[in-house]
Structure formats: C-alpha cells, structure tokens
Design a protein that fits this description.
InterPro entries: ABATE (IPR010852), ABATE_dom_sf (IPR023286), Znf_CGNR (IPR021005). It comes from Corallococcus llansteffanensis. Residues 155-198 form the Zinc finger CGNR domain. By secondary structure, the protein is α+β, with helices and mostly antiparallel strands. It has a domain at 25-154: Jann2411-like fold, CATH 1.10.3300.10. It has six helices and nine strands, in the order E-E-E-H-E-E-H-H-H-E-E-H-E-E-H. A three-stranded antiparallel beta sheet has the order 1-7-6, with no helix packed on it. The chain has a two-stranded antiparallel ribbon with strand order 2-3. Helix 3 (74-95) crosses helix 4, helix 3 packs parallel to helix 5 and helix 4 (102-112) packs across helix 5. The N and C termini lie far apart (81 Å).
C-alpha cells in the first residue's frame, strides 16, 4: 500500500540556544546560520566547521532539521558548502544594495525547487518527516528565497563586532541592532568600551 511507504515523522524536540554542538545560531534565519559555519571568513585563515560529512550531519541536527545524523555523503557535503557560500554572497549583496549574482540565484533557486521535508504536528510540537540530505538543504534554500526575496531583506545586517562576519536579521522595533549576539559580540564591545573609559580616566 502507498500508505505504508510514507516516511514516519521523527519525534524530537528542536534544539534551541545560540550555541548548539559547536555551531552558532544567532542570525534568526537558517539561511544565514548556514554561512556562519565558516568561522572567521574575513580573516586570512578561516575555519570551516563543515569539514567532514559528519560535521554537516551534526549541523543539520543542531539546526533542528533532523532528529539524528542523516549521514551525508562527500558529494552532499560539497553541495552544502556550495549552497552556503551562494547564500552568503546573495545576503551580502542585499546588504549592500547590489545586484544579485545570476549563478548564485540559479543555484539557490534550484535547491529551493527540491521537495523539502514536510512539517508535522507531533505530541511535543513541530516535527519533520524523515528525508534525505537534499530535502534538508532544500528547506535552507527555501528559507533563503523567502528572506532575500521579501521585505526582511532590508533588515539584514552585518555584526559590528571586530572581525565578526556573521549576518543577522534585525527584527527589533527600532531597527538599530548592532550585534549578532548581545551575550557574544555585544558583551565584548561593552567590556572594551568600559576598559577604554577606564584607561582614559587613569590618564
């Protein structure tokens, strides 16, 4: 029967918090959280947190898209990195009011056209039908299309923290959010400002 072939919803509680299994989720959108997996991208030696297929599996779990490691292949890891960088370049273009690169748009649109995992209402809230890595990447790409093609694109900001390349969506009423995280870069900036004032008073 066709019914027996349907994927069973994976019941799990989606992870929360800014830091999950070594990854940062500070942007408010999956399509900007994926680019955050390349740490210190503005520096001479950035660190790729998606170094192995297992790392990608961990990210998908941390992002709340999968209940357990979906066991990505080497090719799926390459595709995820490719999607990640296209999303980052498109977001930066939106931030700078520049034209969107045709190839990056085509790549994101191609992924967004893939069937995404289906949301289900489970006993503990939102769950997802089990799907392969392509469907999970499709969900990220669709989030990118919705963000970059919608009114919130104007709210994409770059963190003002020194050396921080993280992008985020400013949903504050004032529209004056400066940091990817108040507990992270915001706190560091406040501490540095306090030290500067102390040094000034001491002089």
């Amino acid at each position: 029967m066709a019914r027996s072939k349907r994927s069973t919803p994976e019941t799990h509680v989606a992870p929360t918090g800014e830091l999950r299994d070594g990854f940062k989720f500070r942007s408010g959108r999956l399509c900007l959280d994926l680019p955050a997996s390349l740490v210190a991208r503005l520096k001479a030696e950035p660190k790729d947190l998606l170094e192995t297929p297992h790392d990608l599996g961990r990210w998908l779990v941390a992002a709340g898209l999968a209940a357990k490691d979906p066991k990505p292949t080497d090719e799926e890891l390459r595709q995820a990195r490719e999607l990640r960088e296209a999303l980052y370049r498109l977001a930066v273009a939106r931030l700078r009011n520049e034209d969107l690169d045709t190839r990056d748009r085509a790549l994101v649109n191609r992924w967004a056209a893939e069937p995404p995992p289906a949301p289900q209402l489970g006993p503990q809230g939102l769950t997802w039908t089990s799907g392969g890595v392509p469907s999970l990447l499709a969900a990220v790409a669709r989030d990118g299309v919705e963000l970059l093609g919608g009114p919130l694109a104007e709210r994409i900001h770059n963190c003002e923290g020194e050396g921080c390349a993280l992008l985020f969506v400013d949903t504050s009423r004032s529209g004056e959010r400066r940091w990817c995280s108040m507990s992270g870069c915001g706190n560091k900036a406040k501490v540095e400002e306090f030290r500067r004032r102390q040094r000034g008073e001491g002089g």
